[in-house]
Every structure is written in C-alpha cells, then in structure tokens.
Write a sequence for this structure.
C-alpha cells in the first residue's frame, strides 16, 4: 500500500518560486554610463565604442539594465565584443599560420572569434539583442501594439452586421 500523502501545508514544492525580495529604488540605474577607457586591459576599438553607443540609445536596454550586476554583464558583453573584433581582424590578416616544423594550421584567432560569437549570442538573448529575444523577454514596441489593436478594431468592425466605415473594405462582399 502506498504511503498517505502529506497535508498541502507540509509538502515541499520544487517548482514553487520563493519570494526573492524587493530591490531598492535607490540602487536602480537610470542610464548607461560611458564605455570605460579600458576593456580587458586595452583601449576599446572604435567598433566597440559605436556598439556601446547604440546600446546606450536603445530604449529597451535602459529598461532592462536596472542594477550594478546587470551593468557588469553588459560590460562583459562589450569586452567580449572587443575581443571578437580583434580576433576577427587577426584572422582576416592571416588565415593560416606556418609552424616551425613546416605544418600549416588555421590561425588560432579563429577559435577565439567563434567562441566569442557564442558568448555574444548568449548575452544578446539576456538583453533582448534580437527580435526573438525581445519577444521572450516580453518587450513590445508601443507602435506595434497600436497596430495590432487597430487591426483587431477593424476586424471587429468587419465582422459586425452594421454598415462598414468608409476606410474598411468588405472582402466578403460579392459585388465588385
């Protein structure tokens, strides 16, 4: 015979989320700071600075970066982006390297470059760097929701039995 289940108040639920607490409004970041003058011990490339400015001007990034720990992850994104660009340039300059023993191998910068791409994709998903990532994070553009609501309104009007407004074409009408 199977054991009698515990009362609901005594059960341990592994899928139940505990309250994680509240974040003080004083610790929230209102805007992204300038890119640091050094990333990984070197001055950032122009491409990295331009990417950082695009991030600073992106409305959804500012809404997602709320604490210092979020900012740390975004700075890691900038550092990896800078390293990726350096590795890509090194690989483009010399795709193959001849070793002392005469063997020819692919430039090791290729491995750094492709590894950085994987890390960047993961960080972009965290910060809504693509359309699907923004959808997963529940980010909508205000204009897009207006367009959807307008389509729904017109759809409701088209399905109503009363006369249609002038700006709506009845595609179900047989007259032409």
């Amino acid at each position: 015979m199977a054991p009698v289940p515990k009362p609901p108040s005594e059960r341990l639920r592994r899928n139940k989320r505990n309250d994680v607490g509240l974040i003080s409004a004083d610790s929230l970041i209102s805007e992204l700071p300038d890119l640091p003058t050094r990333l990984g011990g070197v001055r950032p490339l122009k491409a990295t600075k331009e990417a950082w400015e695009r991030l600073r001007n992106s409305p959804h990034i500012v809404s997602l970066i709320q604490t210092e720990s979020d900012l740390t992850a975004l700075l890691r994104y900038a550092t990896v982006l800078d390293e990726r660009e350096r590795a890509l340039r090194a690989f483009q300059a010399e795709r193959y390297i001849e070793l002392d023993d005469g063997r020819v191998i692919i430039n090791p910068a290729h491995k750094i470059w492709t590894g950085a791409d994987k890390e960047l994709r993961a960080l972009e998903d965290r910060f809504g760097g693509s359309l699907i990532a923004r959808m997963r994070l529940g980010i909508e553009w205000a204009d897009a929701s207006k367009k959807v609501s307008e389509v729904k309104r017109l759809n409701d009007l088209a399905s109503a039995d009363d006369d249609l407004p002038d700006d709506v074409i009845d595609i179900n009408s047989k007259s032409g």
The first strand starts at residue 96 and ends at 98. The chain has two domains: 30-139, 141-176.
